[in-house]
């Protein structure tokens, strides 16, 4: 406005003093006759000196105001000093909006200041700007719509850009003391170990040496465990924003069809005897009923045993899903696992408002009970069917033999293969009940069966008579579901679960090619129907293209209330994993994880950093990862848009060599990469895709496509490829999950830990002591294998953050702590047996260090409980089982790993005897089952030796001439520390309460007394002078 001075002003002007500015702006109204009436209150205004100097933007301006009730003159004689007609400024093409908003747009507020106080007069501003509120999303004048300024009310009605996720930092009042205490304990540990080394125990150097070595290792192990916990964070998602961005009508999506990427859900099973088909069927039902666009979801089950029982159970599950899935959508059922839903203890009618809910629930419950009966009756039904078909075949062969032998059966009879038959009268191509060549667990053809077709793109609404249920207005489609059993032949290494998962990756890429893959164990079902959308918030948010997977915490059901063996593992899932999320991301734990398919293929992220320096404090972009600007230059030079180019920028990437000889499969790779990109709806989003790019329907499946999917699950397909080496799940380790996640982090990807308010998934865990120890043994064995392999974090690339490297290093080292832990558990007994102690005497220095170390550990643990949300009892159970597992399963894993590496000997700990639970009605009957295993030997030895040592130490001190009570109490204190940690192990061996005969306690006491007396006789106490009593 200041650059366009007006030509005309009001004629009636009063002179002003020298201290006042020239004539200021006048506000007026043009009458119907063309006259301009002044509406200004004052002709001259006193303006402070600060505003009188310099350029005045309001000088000689006339602002025309429309006639409104609040600016009408009092009467005809009230016309102010203006009689001349104001002419329009400039040409007729002048900017009308600038003229009308001249007051609001000017930075000079001299005319809007109160004359007495000098404050801004807001009321006058409203009066002198048409008596309205200006412009904005609260009010916009009608006559300014579609104005020459190009701005209208619709521009203000669009919702502002919002992120899909946000970080929720741990409060500083918790995190700052936590970090300070960690530093303080590190300093105390350093001085304590320095003091221990500088003050040896001359009376028992062997005890001193053993204890020093163990304590140094414990300090090192604690540092590896605590350093990655320095930066714990929480995260939150915004599902409403996800819905607005991807599932609402917009210019790029007029129909409001979902623009979310596809998701393929993998479920793996191997043996229907160990993994009941009913449990697996419930998991599949919970997947098919998730709250995600139906046409974008596909489910797959990998049956690595090729069992017809699993196959037919899945067929029954799909038929039941036709009623269960719409029922869940109609009444918003949670959880959507039918078995869990019908067993909930709360009121099922809570928050249910539809009048027919009770009727529908009663009907679907009856259908589910019939479904369970059919599933339970499948084994007998399949066997009877096989007997009938085999009998028919036998009669047929006999008839043919008689025709060829003149009406008489051959003397050697007729041999008929006892096959397993399908319901349509054909041989089952998988494993038979009586294994035969080409029909056994390790020798059968590949099987792929699409049990529910690809859903239609548009919703299919149900009617009032859908099997006695009214599904009017409810989408009755179900996602695509396929049964997969890869081919197995003798002489091939099938690589167990990792090989089965890679087979599903290839088959699903050809059939559905979802940009993301969610893998679940067969006993882990979807507990939160919106869990996939929660994970998608991270993948589709700004920077989501760098995320390789979203790990959800594992939650378990059916665990005893006291959680005797720390089955919930909350210290790991709510503590360690939450802390790793503040670094480069949590480790992959095998289930409940949503992968980016492109990252599974072994590609590098679109952007990555390299960390150099001693502690990785120097960060720089990775040189061989193409940046966004470079990608743009490359695409511009080739006349292609950067948003449509896949990030296949690795120069050494040879698709046929790495991925196999299926061109159909390799063609799906850039498609999956592009569909997995976040939405480019903001300038800060890099490597995004335009809105509305995923609205096209999937092509229908045809015979050649299914045939190609069967070909890629053949046992020879992975020959001369990098499957299992760089691509897909990594082979060569029992814990293939940890290695797979590590390789992704090592390439520069990051992962996210997604903790939802309602548990995303729930599963089962072994509550029996033996089963729990064998589970821990498998994990520890995999960690030892990682330590002795190229996947050791010491050989990681510079793309791995320093503290993330420390965390992965701890994964491979923690089982070796068991060696020092076992030695340390025997040290109190050795002290009591020998009458010596690990220090010369319990002086002030030792007790002060011990007190400070213990207090800092307790305070650190309390603060960790605070920011992680775990309970004190859960923390204590974890500490107890750390000692139990460390002295048994971890030690066995180290021995097994060393024998495998040094001598190539494979050792497996198997059950030698079993006993069953007596009470079948008890939900926790399995908790009391005692199954003997070799893993019990070392913890039992530790318990017995410490108990006997306490008796012997007490007897020695009592019968000595000069009792050394300080050493006795020191030894008893540490022995009780060991026995307290072993208490859950003892309860596990005792079985049910009161089941241990009294004679066991009697004989135990007699044996202990006898051994102690015998020890005193063989090695009597030393009659030395001095050293009696307490030395402080």
Automatic annotation (TrEMBL):
Compartments, as annotated in UniProt: Golgi apparatus membrane
Keywords of this entry: Cell wall biogenesis/degradation, Glycosyltransferase, Golgi apparatus, Membrane, Transferase, Transmembrane, Transmembrane helix
Bilayer topology term: Multi-pass membrane protein
Positions of transmembrane segments: 176-195, 207-227, 807-835, 847-865, 935-962, 968-986, 998-1018
Molecular function per GO: cellulose synthase (UDP-forming) activity
Chain segments carrying region Disordered: 1-98, 625-653
GO biological process, one term: cellulose biosynthetic process
Residues that bind UDP-alpha-D-glucose: 268, 274-275, 304, 496
Any one GO cellular component localisation term in the record: Golgi membrane
Polar residues composition-biased segments: 1-20, 626-647
Active site: 304, 737
Family per similarity comment: Belongs to the glycosyltransferase 2 family. Plant cellulose synthase-like D subfamily.
Annotated function: Thought to be a Golgi-localized beta-glycan synthase that polymerize the backbones of noncellulosic polysaccharides (hemicelluloses) of plant cell wall.
Entry-linked PANTHER family: X-BOX TRANSCRIPTION FACTOR-RELATED (PTHR13301)
Name of the protein described by the UniProt record: Cellulose synthase-like protein D1
């Amino acid at each position: 406005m200041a650059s366009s001075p007006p030509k005309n002003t009001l004629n009636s002007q009063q002179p002003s003093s020298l201290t006042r500015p020239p004539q200021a702006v006048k506000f007026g109204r043009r009458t119907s006759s063309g006259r301009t009436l002044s509406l200004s209150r004052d002709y001259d205004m006193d303006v402070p000196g600060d505003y009188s100097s310099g350029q005045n933007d309001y000088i000689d301006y006339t602002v025309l105001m429309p006639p409104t009730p609040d600016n009408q003159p009092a009467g005809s004689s009230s016309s102010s000093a203006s009689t001349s007609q104001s002419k329009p400024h400039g040409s007729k093409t002048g900017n009308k909006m600038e003229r009308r908003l001249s007051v609001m747009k000017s930075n000079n507020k001299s005319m809007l200041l109160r004359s007495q106080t000098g404050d801004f007069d807001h009321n006058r501003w409203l009066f002198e700007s048409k008596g309205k509120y200006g412009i904005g999303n609260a009010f916009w004048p009608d006559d300014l719509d579609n104005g020459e300024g190009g701005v209208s009310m619709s521009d203000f009605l669009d919702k502002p850009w919002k992120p899909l996720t946000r970080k929720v930092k741990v409060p500083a009042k918790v995190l700052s003391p936590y970090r300070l205490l960690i530093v303080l304990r590190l300093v105390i540990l350093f001085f304590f170990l320095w003091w221990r080394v500088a003050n040896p125990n001359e009376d028992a150097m062997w005890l001193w040496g053993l204890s020093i070595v163990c304590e140094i290792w414990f300090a090192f192990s604690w540092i590896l465990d605590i350093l990655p916990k320095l930066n714990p964070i929480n995260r939150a998602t915004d599902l409403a924003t996800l819905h607005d961005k991807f599932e609402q009508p917009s210019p790029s999506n007029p129909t409001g069809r979902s623009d979310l990427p596809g998701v393929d859900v993998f479920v793996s099973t191997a043996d229907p005897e160990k993994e009941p088909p009913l449990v697996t069927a419930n998991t599949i039902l919970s997947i098919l009923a998730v709250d995600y666009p139906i046409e974008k979801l596909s489910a797959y089950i990998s049956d690595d045993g090729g069992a017809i029982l699993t196959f037919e159970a899945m067929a029954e599950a799909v038929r039941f899903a036709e009623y269960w899935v719409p029922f869940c959508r109609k009444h918003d059922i949670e959880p959507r696992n039918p078995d869990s839903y019908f067993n909930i203890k709360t009121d099922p009618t809570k928050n249910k408002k539809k009048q027919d809910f009770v009727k529908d629930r009663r009907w679907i419950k009856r259908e589910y009970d019939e479904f369970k009966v059919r599933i339970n009756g499948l084994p007998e039904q399949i066997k009877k069917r096989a007997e009938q078909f085999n009998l028919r075949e036998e009669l047929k062969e006999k008839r043919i033999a008689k025709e060829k032998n003149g009406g008489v059966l051959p003397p050697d009879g007729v041999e008929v293969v006892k096959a397993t038959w399908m319901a349509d009268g054909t041989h089952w191509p998988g494993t038979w009940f009586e294994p035969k060549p080409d029909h056994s667990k390790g020798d059968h053809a590949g099987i792929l069966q699409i049990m529910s077709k690809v859903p239609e793109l548009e919703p299919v609404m149900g009617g009032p008579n859908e099997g006695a249920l009214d599904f009017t207005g409810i989408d009755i489609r179900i996602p695509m579901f396929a049964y997969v059993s890869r081919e197995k032949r003798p002489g091939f290494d099938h690589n167990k679960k990792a090989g089965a998962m890679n087979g599903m990756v290839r088959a699903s890429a050809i059939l559905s090619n979802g940009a993301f893959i969610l893998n679940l164990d067969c006993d882990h079902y979807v507990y939160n129907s919106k869990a996939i959308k929660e994970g998608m918030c991270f993948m589709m948010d700004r920077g989501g293209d760098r995320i390789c997977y979203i790990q959800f915490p594992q939650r378990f059901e059916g665990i005893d209330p006291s959680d005797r063996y720390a089955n919930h593992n909350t210290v790991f899932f709510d503590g360690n994993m939450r802390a790793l999320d503040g670094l480069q991301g949590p480790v992959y734990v095998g289930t409940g994880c949503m992968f980016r398919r492109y990252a599974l293929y072994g590609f590098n992220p679109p952007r990555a950093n390299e960390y150099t320096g001693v502690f990785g404090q120097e960060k720089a972009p990775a040189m061989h990862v193409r940046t966004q600007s470079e990608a743009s230059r490359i695409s511009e030079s080739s006349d292609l848009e950067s948003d449509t180019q896949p990030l296949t920028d690795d120069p050494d990437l040879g698709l046929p060599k790495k991925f196999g000889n299926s061109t159909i499969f390799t063609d799906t790779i850039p498609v999956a990469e592009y569909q997995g990109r976040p939405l480019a709806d903001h300038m800060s989003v890099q490597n995004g895709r335009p809105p509305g790019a995923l609205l096209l329907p999937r092509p229908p499946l045809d015979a050649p496509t299914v045939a190609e999917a069967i070909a890629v699950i053949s046992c020879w397909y992975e020959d001369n490829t990098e499957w299992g080496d760089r691509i897909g799940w990594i082979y060569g380790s029992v814990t293939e999950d940890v290695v797979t996640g590590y390789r992704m982090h090592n390439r520069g990807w990051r992962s996210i830990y997604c903790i939802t308010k309602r548990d995303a998934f729930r599963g089962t865990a072994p509550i029996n002591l033996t089963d729990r120890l064998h589970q821990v043994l498998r994990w520890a064995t995999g960690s030892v294998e990682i330590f002795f392999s190229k996947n050791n974090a010491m050989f990681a690339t510079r793309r791995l953050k320093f503290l993330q490297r420390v965390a992965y290093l701890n994964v491979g080292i923690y089982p070796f702590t068991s060696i020092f832990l076992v030695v340390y558990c025997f040290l109190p007994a050795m002290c009591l047996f020998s009458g010596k102690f690990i220090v010369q005497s319990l002086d002030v220095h030792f007790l002060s260090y011990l007190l400070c170390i213990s207090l800092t550990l307790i305070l650190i643990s309390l603060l960790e409980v605070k920011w992680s949300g775990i309970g004190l009892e859960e923390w204590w159970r974890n500490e107890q089982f750390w000692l139990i597992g460390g002295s048994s399963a971890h030690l066995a894993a180290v021995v097994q790993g060393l024998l495998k590496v040094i001598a190539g000997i494979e050792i497996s700990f198997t059950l030698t005897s079993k006993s069953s639970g007596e009470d079948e009605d008890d939900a926790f009957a399995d908790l009391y089952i005692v199954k003997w295993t070799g893993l019990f030997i070392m913890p039992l030895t530790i318990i017995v030796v410490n108990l006997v040592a306490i008796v012997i130490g007490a007897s020695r001190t009592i019968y000595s001439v000069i009792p050394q009570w300080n050493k006795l109490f020191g030894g008893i204190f540490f022995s009780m520390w060991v026995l307290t940690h072993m208490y859950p192990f003892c309860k596990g061996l005792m079985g049910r309460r009161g089941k241990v005969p009294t004679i066991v306690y009697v004989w135990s006491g007699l044996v202990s007394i006898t051994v102690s007396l015998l020890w005193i006789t063989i090695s009597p106490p030393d009659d030395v002078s001095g050293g009696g009593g307490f030395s402080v």
